[in-house]
Amino acid sequence: MDKAIKTLIVDDNDINQMVLNAILSSQSERLQGTIGQHYPFDVKRMGDAASALEELDILQFDLICTDLLMPYMNGEEFVIRLAESGYKGALVIMTQVTEHTQTFINRIRKTYPGCAVLNKPFLYKEVSDSIARVLNLPLGLTSDNIK
Q1: Per-residue pLDDT reduced to its tens digit, 45-80
Q2: Residue 26 and residue 4: Cα distance in Å, rounded?
Q3: Domains located in the chain, CATH noted
């Protein structure tokens, strides 16, 4: 696969955006070296959900990674609007799981049954495995098989 995986990261925390972007870049490079296939991530980072929705009117994404707790428009409203817009790509929710967020996640999984949840603070292995799973990448692409 040489086609870039168009990825949108939505998080009001710049550090979380940079860490996730670095993990995606690292995973792409390791996959190239390990299995000889290129899985590049073309990443767009947005600091708020309202701007991200505007971006979705312009571009289509294969993968969206979003925080749930953000100012102005929270991630819950953003994910609901994604579903209403007919978004069919992969979804990763990044949050600190609480009783409230777990209730929302259970509801949204009815629309996005394959969505992944990354409990903050997340680890490289969790991100790597979750991205491979939601994108239906070959099993050999999970971090367990990357040396």
Answers
A1: 999 999 999 999 899 999 999 999 888 888 889 999
A2: 14
A3: 5-145 (3.40.50.2300)
